[in-house]
Write a structure and sequence with these properties.
GTPase Der; alpha/beta; 3 domains; ribosome biogenesis; GMP Synthetase, Chain A, domain 3; Rossmann fold; six-stranded mixed sheet; repeat
């Protein structure tokens, strides 16, 4: 199956590129705010526009700064995005009219071997008419009046894009005859070969983007010494070769914004970034909490870890910058002890030492991620589950508060990802929390669930005379 044609959105800051991206994708994916420079990394989205299918790329605002500055590195990311693109969508602000920076971007685009469509955004009403007329001077033909906020101009954009996207015949292999007999309609078990959704989270400047760049082998994400560079949660599809088996494994890597203490988050944009990171955790299968070896484990790290576990995601803790850690053995043991104490509800969370600079430990981290996903997705048959349950109850019967027995009748697994179990019995409201922990620890230890969050629900029959 051939890849979708790629349309890259380019323009100076605050002309509405991310709003256009959201409009085309049909979802509020990219962060949008009135202040310029919100977007810093490339974001990809699939679009089906009036039957026209393509991939759109949101980029950082083009700024005229030195290459070693943050805006300069953002511009380099934008320049890289044009490699392999089918069309460049050059966006201007029709209300503001042409600026010297628009003209500079136009000169650069004329030197690239990519077709350019000029999109005059914010063209609702008559306030943008003058800017649209000025846009002819850029030499890219008729500008397309557009309003990302109101969706005006979509048909004109479709007509302009169509010649560049419908240039090739469709591959016959893209279409398959539907299978007869209605097979595959039943609910399927988890497919271990399916792509792993892996989110990287942590405090600002822990090295999350650098780690992903190291895995990809390219400068895909913007990095630097400044804290809080990443704002959007950026996902990248990638293939990793398992060194143990030599087999390729599909992974969806998700980079997230750094998560500081709630009291320190005052800026509106940072609040949006943290909310986006929490959203990425909700939709991940496995979450890697990245620590900074030069700072060790802090209270904020434990809060992030607890957030991941509360959402029912599988968790791995990776200690980054291991190549410059002092006293690595004592540091590792100290973090291991602090994790077991701070995450009392789930001891034994996988802990690996990594270096985003040298690549140390990254294969070990990814192997652990696939292993914990397997445990997170495990389903135990009711028969095997109840054999274990009977042995556990016989070995340690529940207490009898007030001389009345608590009867535990049977257990069943209601769902996976995360694993959820339901215990049926009588007088379960009086079952001590310590006994619930005993059962949860037994499930993890003896049924192969390891250090993944497990949910346990107690259900007693309703008393018809209770009222």
């Amino acid at each position: 199956m051939r890849p979708l044609p790629q349309v890259v959105i380019i323009g100076r800051p605050n002309v509405g590129k991310s709003t256009i991206f959201n409009r085309l994708v049909g979802k509020r994916i990219a962060l949008v705010d009135d202040q310029p420079g919100v977007t810093r990394d490339r974001r990809y989205g699939d679009v089906s526009l009036l039957g026209l299918d393509f991939q759109v790329v949101d980029t950082a605002g083009w700024e005229d700064e030195e290459p070693d500055t943050l805006p300069g590195r953002m511009r380099a990311q934008t320049e890289m995005s044009l490699k392999g693109a089918d069309v460049a969508l050059f966006v201007i602000d029709s209300r503001a009219g042409l600026t010297p920076l628009d003209e500079e971007i136009a000169r650069w685009l004329r030197g690239q071997n990519v077709p350019v469509l000029l999109l005059a955004n914010k063209a609702e009403g008559r306030s943008g008419d003058d800017g649209i007329m000025e846009a002819y001077a850029l030499g890219f033909g008729d500008p397309i009046p557009f309003s990302a906020e109101h969706g005006l101009g979509t048909v004109d954009l479709f007509e302009a894009l169509r010649p560049h996207i419908e240039g090739e015949e469709l591959d016959e292999d893209e279409f398959e005859e539907p299978a007869e007999g209605g097979e595959g309609e039943e609910e399927e078990e988890h497919d271990s070969s399916a792509p792993l959704s892996l989110a990287i989270v942590g405090r600002p400047n822990a090295g999350k983007s650098t780690l992903i760049n190291r895995l990809l082998g390219e400068d895909r994400l913007l990095t630097g010494p400044e804290a809080g560079i990443t704002r959007d949660s950026i996902s990248v599809d990638w293939q990793w070769t398992d060194p143990a088996t030599g087999e390729p494994r599909e992974i969806k890597l998700v980079d997230t914004a750094g998560m500081r203490k709630k009291a320190k988050v005052q800026d509106k944009l940072e609040r949006l970034s943290v909310a986006d990171a929490r959203h990425a955790i909700d939709y991940a299968e496995v979450v890697v909490l990245l620590l900074d070896a030069t700072r060790g484990l802090e209270v904020q790290d434990l809060k992030i870890a607890n957030l991941v576990l509360e959402e029912g995601r599988a968790l791995i803790v990776a200690v980054n910058k291991w190549d410059i850690a002092e006293g690595p053995s004592a540091l590792f043991n100290g973090i291991r002890t602090a994790l077991d104490e701070g995450l009392a509800q789930l001891k034994g969370v996988p802990l690996v030492a990594v270096s985003a600079i040298t690549g140390k430990g990254l294969d070990q981290m990814l192997s652990a991620a696939f292993e914990v996903r397997e445990a997170w997705s495990r389903r135990v048959s009711t028969a095997a589950l109840n054999r274990w349950f009977e042995q556990a109850v016989d070995a340690n019967p529940p207490p009898a508060p007030g001389g009345k027995r608590i009867k535990l009748r049977y257990i069943t697994q209601s769902s996976t990802r995360p694993p959820r179990f339901v215990i049926f019995g009588t007088r379960l409201t009086e079952l001590p929390t310590s006994y619930e922990r005993y059962l949860l620890n037994g499930i993890r230890r003896e049924l192969g669930f390891g250090a993944v969050p497990v949910r346990l629900t107690l259900k007693s029959p309703k008393n018809p005379f209770g009222n």
